[in-house]
Amino acid sequence: MTTVGLPALSPIAVLPNLRDLGGWTGAGGRTVRTGKLFRSTDFRSVPPGARDVLEPLRLRTVYDLRSAAERRALPDPAIDGVTGVPLDVLADRAQAVPGDLGRILDDPEVVHRLTAQMDGAVADLMADTYRGFIAMGSAKAAYRRLYLGLLGEDHGPALFHCTTGKDRTGWAAASFLSVMGVDRDAVYADYLETNNRLLPALAPLFDKFASLGGDPELLKPLLGVDRSYLDAAFGELEKTFGDVATYFADGLGIDADAQARLRDTFLSD
Fold this sequence. Notes:
The protein is α/β, with parallel strands linked by helices. Helices cover 49% and strands 7% of the residues. The protein has helices at 68-73, 97-106, 109-118, 122-135, 137-153, 168-179, 184-201, 203-211, 220-223, 227-240, 244-251, 256-266; strands at residues 19-20, 37-40, 61-64, 83-86, 158-161. The protein has a five-stranded mixed β-sheet with strand order 1-2-5-3-4, with helices on one face.
């Protein structure tokens, strides 16, 4: 058995793609602890002033994987007792599809311009972005800082997010579950679960796009996830580093002892 089942539905209805990364079976048959680490979208769907919405998670740290421009356009809510840590994964890339998703969510007409510019090459552009999660200096620095935080520089429970919680967040979750020893099929199951949770919640956006004369199918590669995207990240990891342990050690500076401490922290006894 690779899991004890997919994580439960989000405890916060307005954040359907929020989920606990606990519950998966990791190294030595130990289970990833629940209530310690969460992945999410941004908080645009949380009603203004409704800080108590996040209370069930008992968060102490929120890692924001978005760009500085994205954070300025939609800052995370200030919550008493919660520290925000900005980590710009895509800082080294002037343009990348994930960095435009906030504008798409705010104005579906943007999709017409973006899809015309991409000329049907969305999947290729997404795959290239995922390879960048492994190769770019800004990505390595951001993910290194995330793991240093999880190793004790910051307090938990913690949550990490980007805009739609699928790409920059998707790699954060995939790398975390991988270093926990969760098998690859289960890592992909968590990754692809975004399509079940996020896309239905975006139905009004798809409808709006259709009303503007667009083909809603064009949105799915942008707003959903695809196995080929994560394949690109793992392919780049294996080409450059060989395996997950070496990626953490040589790419992120999280050596074998630190990786073992991560597992001791986040896996059940």
